[in-house]
Amino acid sequence: MIIVPKTRGFICTTAHPDGCAAHVQEQIDHVRSRPQPGNMPKNVLVVGASTGYGLASRIVPAFSGGASTLGVFFEKPPTERKTASAGWYNSAALEAAARADGLYARSINGDAFSGEIKRRAIREISASMGPIDCVVYSLASPRRTDPQSGEVYRSCLKPIGQTYTQKNINTDKAEVDEVTIESASDEEIAGTVKVMGGEDWELWIDALLEAGVLADGATSVAYSYIGPELTWPIYKEGTIGRAKIHLEESCARIRGKLESTGGRAFVSVNKAVVTQASSAIPVVPLYISILFKKMKEEGLHEDCIEQIQRMFADHLDNGTQLDDAGRIRLDDREMREDIQAHVAGVWQQITSGNLRELSDFEGYRKNFLKLFGFGLAGVDYDAESDPLRSVDLVE
Ligand code: NAD
Q1: Distance CA 377, CA 366 (A)
Q2: Would you say the C-alpha torsion 363, 369, 370, 375 has a positive or negative sign?
Q3: Which of 176, 178, 211, 310 is the most exposed place for a label (fewest CB within 10 A)?
Q4: What is the pTM assigned to this prediction?
Q5: Mean pLDDT score, 310-328
Q6: Looking at the domain assignment, is residue 97 inside a domain?
Q7: How many domains does the chain have?
Q8: 157-214, pLDDT tens digit by residue?
Q9: Distance of alpha carbon 207 from alpha carbon 212, whole angstroms
Q10: Distance (Å, rounded) from C-alpha 216 to C-alpha 43?
Q11: How much distance in Å is there from the Cα of 261 to the middle of ligand 1?
Q12: Assigned domain for 251 exists
């Protein structure tokens, strides 16, 4: 079939298999162009491994360190008439490239929050991989079924204790408008913490420890975001910020559990990038469009792969510089004073009329389409493409 993007707001319901493969290849090429870090993990589990930061966290150890990788994700497989979700095609491409290099790379497609998927991962690790020395936890999900009670919790992106009105971008119309979001209820706050906090990360570590499949000295990392003050009501001080506080508390507990064998646990605060998760957050796409223009002008622009390459090479390799709260800061370039001062100034002036002049909205759009495999060089989008691509699934 001829596959074209079908987008509405922050959703694209199609994905291009060859384009996704080209996108994965770009990331592999980046990793190969960098010096190989000395102390790379050899057996890596990535939870949330198919897109965004999790995909990059699988690519770096595999193609920079020759690691075996097991990826867990929740993606839609293709049919003869309908494309798969992008993460499926990304994973198919990653596995094919890993196989070509003689590397182990298999995947589990299912609900990472469930006990069954954790048990499946442990069975596979015991049977085929040997002890895991690095666990990256990179889930972004709108809901979670509690594995004990069966209750379904939902996450939301809302301010707490205030109504938040801010500039926003209508990405379909390329217009700057305004969004007003009412304060979250207590139930919504608790739901977001349950879904996006650290409870499930800790359950994964507990299950791996109990099964004896974590190597001595293993490292685990989960990701967070802080960002500029203008987004704090919807991010850092909102429902998702509460979940990230919980993630940090979980990190401290996990560190305590791993320390006796020389293991480590970190929260890494990453830069704002265009992913399926971040494009759903109000206000953030406009901020990213302004930020990207300035960071590109300054030669500081990074996407997921550059950030995660830096994390493995500069932070997880031989000790790491942490901030006062004990976190890895990959957002150092985004948060530089001059960059933030520039963004704050542009934020005051930006309107629909000067959007393209003052921001990199075109870059944002291209980046968004690329998540689904569209707009990549060397891909013939007019040609028929077979939507069926296989992933080596652990059942
Ligand atoms: P993403 O949407 O690109 O990826 C989410 C991943 O989670 C996918 O692999 C998806 O398949 C998987 N997933 C979702 N629900 C699942 C489930 N129930 N079971 C198994 N897998 C499931 O997200 P992202 O933006 O890369 O975010 C990953 C982490 O990075 C999040 O913690 C996010 O807060 C953090 N982060 C993101 C940004 C950003 O700008 N995007 C910045 C800093 C930190």
Answers
A1: 12
A2: negative
A3: 178
A4: 0.98
A5: 88
A6: yes
A7: 1
A8: 999 999 999 999 999 899 999 999 999 999 999 999 999 999 999 999 999 999 999 9
A9: 9
A10: 12
A11: 29
A12: yes
How far is the C-alpha of 372 from the C-alpha of 13, rounded, in Å? Answer: 9
The reply to whether 292 falls in a domain is no
Is 223 noted as a catalytic residue in this protein? no
In a domain, 361, yes or no: no
What is the distance in A from the centroid of ligand 1 to the CA of 139?
A: 4
CATH code at position 118: 3.40.50.720
Q: Is the CB of 241 under 6 A from ligand 1?
A: no
Q: Are 220 and 137 in contact (CB under 8 A)?
A: yes
On the question of pLDDT at 38 being above 90, the answer is: no
Q: How far apart are the first and last CA of the chain?
A: 29
Mean pLDDT, to the nearest integer, of 372-388? Answer: 97
Question: Would you call 63 exposed, middle or buried from its count of C-beta atoms within 10 A (0-12, 13-18, 19+)?
Answer: buried
Of the candidates 89, 153, 164, 235, the residue annotated as catalytic is 235
Q: By residue range, what is the domain housing residue 71?
A: 7-144+151-156+194-281+300-332
Whether the CB-CB separation of 344 and 230 falls below 8 Å is answered with yes
pLDDT tens-digit map of 289-317: 999 999 999 999 999 999 999 999 999 87
In ligand 1, the atom with minimum distance to the C-alpha of 54 is 26
**What letter represents residue 223's amino acid?**
Y
Mean pLDDT of 309-329: 89
C-alpha distances out from residue 312 to 61, 274, 318, Å: 8, 21, 9
Residue 144 has pLDDT above 70, yes or no: yes
